[in-house]
Amino acid sequence: MKLNNKDYFQRFIFLVLLSLACFQIYRSYKFIKHSPKQNKDIQKLLEVIPQKDYKRVYIDAHNLIKDILEIQLEKQKVFSYPCSFLDKYSFTYTFGVRVYPANQTSQGFIITCKEDKQLFEQYQEQKVPLIRSSEFFYLWKNL
Amino acid sequence: MNWILFVFLSFPFFSYFCFQFIPSGNVLLFYFSFIFYLLLSFGTYWTIFRPTIISHKKYKFFITKDVIVVHVIFIVLLLFSVLYHDFYRWQIEPNGMLDSILIWNVKAKLIGETFLNSKPVYFHDPYWKFDSYPIGLPLTLAFFTVLNGGWALNIAYAYAISLLLLCIALFISFISQLEATLKQVIFSWILFLSFILEFNVLMNHSSIVADFPIFVGVFCLAYLYFSKWTMWSTFIFALNLGWVLFTKNEGIFYVLVGMFLYGLKLKTSQDIIQNKKVHVIQFVLFLTLFLFPSILHKFQSEFVPSDFQRKEALAWSFELFSDKLKWILSYAFQFHFQFLLGIHLLILFSYARFFERNLEKYSLNFLLLSLPLIYMLLYFFSNYDHSEAAKFLGEAYKKMNLHEKEIFHLKEHLESSFYRINTHYLPLFLFIGLQVIQKFFSKNN
């Protein structure tokens, strides 16, 4: 079969499409297997939260956790926000997620998914401890 | 396969019917009605719809031993990876993401356990957060809560996994209809995996919220559109549109998309050319029937979702507009090029470039280009005020002016939902991609 320019172009596009699809699958497998390493910030966090409260750490994105508690559904669970999974891949996420020990609501930890300078500075002014979300994933795994 | 699709899609409506009419606490009648429903639906399918499918069937299922081996390998690979991810996510976050505990699971649990405690079941409560959200998913989960004798998170997990299995089954069924060769099957699987294992789809699946069901609903829509059209397709297509609207507010787009696709099918397909009028009447009747519960529910609660109710955000200025545009575009860029690597756009380009020029091609291209744009436009008007989040920033927030507050709300809303809801329309791109692969192979042969 004789191929013309259009056929070659079609083959080229098809190959690009397939290689992108393969790369996407490879990236997904990396994401699925991903487990961030422990570092000093995690140690700090683990020191601050008492051992017995590990399983009662609430992670609250919109401070709606109070309403949930009022509904009395699942008190002893960990909640979180999906962006913290993805930080490893350096996608920009700007909104922080707070982590509360169960008995503490006024102060907490803020997980920044990627440093948003403005928010970051505001948090620093308030002297709130900061950790990155990839480290937070480690904390999850070790709860 | 067709019967399973029917049972799956009609289940929320059946649950709605049961919770409305079965007296609270009568679990035995619930069990009985479940078995009766399965038998009745199977009987109806076997006697009415199956003969029409067989009479229209002009294709043969093309499955050789090699193709079966490839299917098995890829199914194992896919299930292993998704369940591995789910296992970790659910170990850490048993309730999935915040929305599932705030909206979907809490409603399912309350409806199911109210019934079990012999109290009158209600579908609205002003105390609920997002009371106006559709109740298709909670009703389905509540039904199994009653069968189980109490709420268990395993019900939500099992439902999410069953949706994934339905996707796989539909995909294999579609590939078989295409009479695909071994190479074509392998390439189709690679494309399928690249969509299903996409980060946001994986996260949606393990978040056990209503976004993955919508993804599957659009998957069914695309499957039905690209398959041979029969009387059964008309019925199940209308049911699918009703199901999507009954599951999530965004379903309204897919009702419109579905009607558009139906019109296109009517115009271009040879399958329904003989009895067009009968098909249209059937479609309109079925659609009215299946949209009715959603519309009823909407009228009983708020009609406009709370995400679009604040008036302050409509105080437009050029600065606000340009900032909003900047943020929305940055999120859109990340979603389409960093997450999806532009695969879907490349598929659309190939479809536009290498397929014959006809009405169907232009219409589908228009549809698939407009969907992401509509989703982006939505964010200009979305302005949910997370007043609690405002307290969170304390003094810093008080110093902000209206413009800054609006941007803050928008960023927050973009952050929590942009990637999640943009996965809804991906199955349409996937099915176009499967057409592209078929075209490539048919030309080479």
Write a concise synopsis of the structure shown.
The complex is a heterodimer of chains A (143) and B (445). Chain A has 143 residues and is of the alpha+beta class.
Q: What layout of secondary structure does this protein have?
A:
The complex is a heterodimer of chains A (143) and B (445).
Chain A: H1 5-33, H2 40-48, E1 58-60, H3 65-71, H4 83-86, E2 97-100, E3 109-112, H5 117-125, E4 130-132, H6 133-141
Parallel strand pairs in A: 3-4
Antiparallel strand pairs in A: 1-2, 2-3
Chain B: H1 2-21, H2 27-56, H3 65-92, H4 98-116, H5 136-148, H6 153-177, H7 182-196, H8 199-207, H9 211-226, H10 231-247, H11 251-268, H12 276-300, H13 318-339, H14 343-354, H15 359-381, H16 387-393, H17 395-398, H18 402-422, H19 426-444
Helix pairs in contact in B: 1-2, 1-5, 1-10, 3-7, 3-8, 4-5, 6-9, 7-19, 9-10, 9-11, 9-19, 10-11, 10-12, 11-15, 13-18, 14-19, 15-18
Descriptive account of the structure:
The complex is a heterodimer of chains A (143) and B (445). With 143 residues, chain A is an alpha+beta fold. Chain A contains 6 helices and 4 strands. A 4-stranded mixed β-sheet of chain A has the order 1-2-3-4, sandwiched between helices. In chain A, strand 2 and strand 3 form a beta hairpin. In chain B, helix 3 packs across helix 8, helix 7 packs antiparallel against helix 19 (426-444) and helix 13 runs parallel beside helix 18 (402-422). Chain B is globular. The two termini of chain B are 30 Å apart. The interface between A and B is large, with 51 and 60 residues.
